[in-house]
Design brief:
Layout lengths: L1 E3 L2 H9 L12 E2 L4 E2 L10 H5 L6 E3 L9
Antiparallel strand pairs: 1-4, 2-3
The structure holds iron/sulfur cluster.
Length: 68
């Protein structure tokens, strides 16, 4: 799901410690560094999300499930 990024999103992501990336997902295989469901991960990795700036966009994975 594509979501456009603005200054408010970036502020709230930091303030509320939003978890939405593969590394936060229960389907993430940290040993093999891949999705255990076989989905492509590049758009959902934390590094990709953190480099986005206001007026850009990020992609949320519809199969994300918070780990723990
Ligand atoms: S289900 Fe989606 S968010 Fe979770 S590890 Fe796989 S690709 Fe990443």
């Amino acid at each position: 799901m594509r979501t456009y990024v603005d200054r408010r999103y970036l502020d709230e992501r930091a303030r509320f410690a939003l978890r939405c990336c593969c590394e936060d997902c229960q389907h993430w295989d940290g040993v093999r560094q891949l999705c255990s469901l076989g989905f492509p991960t590049a758009p959902h990795r934390r590094e990709r999300h953190e480099q986005e700036v206001a007026e850009g966009y990020i992609l949320f994975c519809k199969h994300f499930e918070l780990d723990g």
